[in-house]
MARVEL domain-containing protein
Amino acid sequence: KASDLIRLLKVLETFVACVIFAFLSNTSLYIDQPALEWCVAVYSICFILAVLAMLMDREEWENRLPISFPVFHLGLNLLSILLHFTALVLWLLYQFDEKYGGQPQQSSDVNCIDRTTNGMCAWEQRLAVAVLTAANLLTYMADLGYWAHQVSVGTGGQPTDS
């Protein structure tokens, strides 16, 4: 069913955010760098919005919104996409571009000599966050596509099984 797919997408968005948070437990990846701290804020905001959307995906909440449920979800997904896009661009620039203090290659990362407690070097953690950010961006885009379809066909928030 389409409604099960949408719930799965929201669960995936929140799960990926949790994995990102695990990598961000190494605060040296972003601390004292405003652009990268913005990325962490984006992950946190989008996580909260996804959890909020899952909680509101209940019959009793749909009718309490001042706008239709599909428009609400469409707006949340559009906002999450814009935020994730900024986070992806900033993360890539500030973590991997030498002009912005990044390290483009793993071999140039002195932290790889001393592995962190989870066995990954800081460069690998940076790469993992970049890949997961891109994956979540794609997931939000799929979610947006579904809700855009719901708004265009005017289902009034009732998921179709097509």
Observations:
- Residues 122-153 form the longest helix (32 residues).
- The CA atoms of residues 7 and 54 lie 7 Å apart.
